[in-house]
Amino acid sequence: MASVATFERKRIAERIKDGFCVGRSNGKKYGYHNDNTKAGVIKRNMKRKIETQQRYESILECLRTLHKEKPTERVMLAHLEQAGYSVSRNTLRKALGK
Q1: Contact between 66 and 96 (Cβ < 8 Å)
Q2: pTM above 0.70?
Q3: What sign for the dihedral angle of Cα 10, 16, 18, 20?
Q4: SS3 for 31?
Q5: Euclidean distance between CA atoms 73 and 83, whole angstroms
Q6: If you compute the radius of gyration of the chain from its CA atoms, what whole number of angstroms results?
Q7: Crossing angle of helices 89-96/35-63, nearest 10°?
Q8: Quick check: 22 and 12 in contact, CB under 8 A?
Q9: What percent helix, strand, coil does the chain show, rounded to 5?
């Protein structure tokens, strides 16, 4: 029974590939070939990157007073929690560049 299912799965894959070939021969484009889509994805990614960098900078600014004491991560996280930042240990490490 499993061999029949495997054979059927291969046939379905062949039909799908044949359909893609026919579509491409007719000029159809698949994926991110649309320039508007590419531009939107790039714009969204840049916006996220800028927002993340600004968040890291605000975290570091909040930690400047503690920097002289050389605190542990746990102390830094507690300080950020008191300041109103909900930050994970991983985010703190990324902001610190570790």
Answers
A1: no
A2: no
A3: negative
A4: coil
A5: 15
A6: 25
A7: 90
A8: no
A9: 80, 0, 20
Q: Which two tokens stand for residue 78?
A: 């507690």
d(CA 26, CA 89): 52
Query: Rounded to an integer, what distance in angstroms lies between the CA atom of residue 27 and that of residue 15?
Result: 19
φ/ψ (deg, to 5) at 31: 85, -150
DSSP 8-state code for residue 17:
H
Amino acid in position 87: V
Residue 36: how many CA atoms within 13 Å on its side-chain side?
0
The pLDDT tens digits of the residues spanning 22-64 come to 999 998 888 766 777 788 888 999 999 999 999 999 988 888 8
- Tell me the C-alpha distance between 34 and 68, whole Å: 51
